[in-house]
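Good morning C.,

I know you're traveling, so I'll keep this short. The sequence:
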Amino acid sequence: MSGGIPSGDRASRGRGRAQSADLTASRPKPKLKKVMPEVWALIRPRRWILAGSFLLMLVNRLCSFVLPLSARPLINNVMVGRNMKLLPLIIGYVAVATLVQGITSYMLTQLLSTEGQKLISELRIQVQSHIGRLPVSFYDENRTGTLVARIMSDVEGVRNLVGTGLMDFVGGILTAIIAFLLMMRVNGRMTLLTLCIMVTFGLILQKAIKKIRPIFRERSKINAEVTGRLTESLGGVRVVKGYHAEASESQVFATGVKRLLDNIISSLSAQSLMTLTSTMVLGIIGGLVMYIGAHETAAHRLDVGGYVSFTMLLAFTMSPIVQLVSIGTQLTEALAGLDRTNEIMSESEEDSEPQRTNAAGAVRGDVAFEDVVFEYEAGKPVLHGISFAAKPGSVTALVGSSGSGKSTIISLICGFHTATSGRVLIDGVDLATIRLSSYRQQLGVVLQETFLFDGTIRENVQFSRPDATEAQWMEACRIARVDEFSEKFPDGYETIVGERGVKLSGGQRQRLSIARAILADPRILILDEATSSLDSESEAMIQGGLNHLMQGRTTFVIAHRLSTIRRADQILVIEAGLILERGTHESLYQLGGRYYDLYTRQHGVESNLFLAPGEGSKPDDEEQVEA
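The tokens, ready to paste straight into the viewer:
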């Protein structure tokens, strides 16, 4: 497509609201068992990398046990037994183990951190690509900033599912198990008592993590809302300043930030409570080990070296458990982000309907409506049995009061919505059965509000056809008279136009839009109030480009200049979702009906009405039929 999306009638946007409106609304919280297949889908392509990382982690954790296991022979044999020959050997074991542990830690961090960032990049690309293929109704019901947050923020924590977070989680559990088995060899009584306390702590930890997960989901929701409003506020800065609303916008943003702060404080409080509990558990276990260890040593059931070794192994058992508080929080945040990401990915794409099996092929431009009824909201039709035909190369003008259904008709032609009943035919084929990706390649749109990207003039013109040759896009610029102002800039066609083309005038932006449409070479062209906001001088400059663009294409215009309406092959007067009148400019004016009323309300009766354009008619800036 060569332009943006025509704004549909705003009377109601209910259709699809239940399924796609405000994705931040509460949904059933997926349980861990239901999330696991989705986690596996992320892990599966990286399973061999994770398997290799697991082996590195296993070597790393086994090496860490060399130090506590060396404590017993060091104390009993070297310090107490005075066997100094063992000292170099013990130190050598510890040194080698420490070196291996350092090397494997470095490799794990590099490997998993890199893979985690790759996952984030891939997910962002997938989510953005999927959102780009969703229907227009989805965008009608979701803020741009909210969708940006979904793409950029929600996937951020997912890196922990394949990164260091997951491996630390698994490694911590593995370390605790190995340490527990070694502790059993040293003293079974102290080990079993320690195990009972740790199991109790584990149950408490599980319940705490379950309660924290909804808090992270809520944080993502609030963050998306705040980001969405901030994006809108920055994008509409001229309106904000024009109405001196800086203070009110700051207040709205501050309120959102306060909600976000309250959520963060709630999660921090929960984490602090978990940390407090783990510290208390660690203290209780430490005290019990000291008490029982002293009695066991006094009863000669445990030597001093064994007690020291047990204490060090206990630290290896408790340290991973305490770390699980932090790691568990990271994984909980990752799962919450995955939940929200999957909500987006589960939305149906435009071409996902099973009936869309036909490729558009080379479109001739024969458009027909057959008794079309359309409802945005069930039971509230906005179009009532619309029927008309537009032959290839013809010009059809849609006029009528605001909210009459003109933009809805255009939306149906563009395939943004599907008729509730009746058919929209393109070259005799029901548009509901055509793959929209192939159809829209031959559709062009020029809007009243031209959307330009913050890039160069060249990039904005080539947007509709990136593979165009230098000669082709230069010809499009010449026809649309883009060359007249572009070549006056110091950087020529490499001039940056600014966000939404803010550095260009309205007429210059519109000429860029027309050049973009000319380069696309569409078979069906939509002109949605393409010149109504321009002054007569700007309109006159781009009229030639529009005339060239319309030649040989099936064209639909909304509220275009009177000169274009006069040349239209047919004019459809739309009122309350019905075609009230149809015909040419002359026949409808002579009819003296609704079109006559619309015209005379703005211009009065002209004795020279039927002169050719430019022959005694009023200036173009006065000749605009009511939208």
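Safe travels,
E.
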